[in-house]
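#lab-general

N.A. 3:47 PM
ok so I finally got the sequence cleaned up, no stray characters, all 155 residues accounted for. can someone with queue access submit it? mine expired

B.Y. 3:52 PM
send it over

N.A. 3:53 PM
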Amino acid sequence: LDVDSSNHYAYVGISDNDPATQPIIRFAQRNYSVTEGDSGQIYLNVRVVLSEAATTAVRVKFDTILHAGATDGTDFQGVHRWLTFDVGQTAKTVRIPIYGDTVNEAYETFAVRLSQASGGAQLDVDSSNHYAYVGISDNDSPSFAHAALHSDWLI
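B.Y. 4:20 PM
back already:
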């Protein structure tokens, strides 16, 4: 045994070779709903979130896409833009204009999609989380002329 007690210890360094986790980008919720007005526009806020704060700037493409019934330019204003999460941010909100009218309509929907994540973040591995769906409820009653076509509606 060595008389110098400092030689009785060994120092070991451990390097972490696990890949760093990347923040996951997804919608805060999968379904949104709004009731249209009679005129003008209201705004629907859609939230996009990161699973953890960004350590570098993160970008993702946000697009409205047609789904079932709702028409871009008539029922809503399409949004096609890049969202940028700055360092430390975990959420972004996109405002989508919803147009009002006085036309009796069925329930209409459209979708929003996330794509092309960059900057050290990734889209959720479950591709169904790349989409959220927006339902627009009508606030208008059927017109008398429309109701007359459907006499079974009359009491």
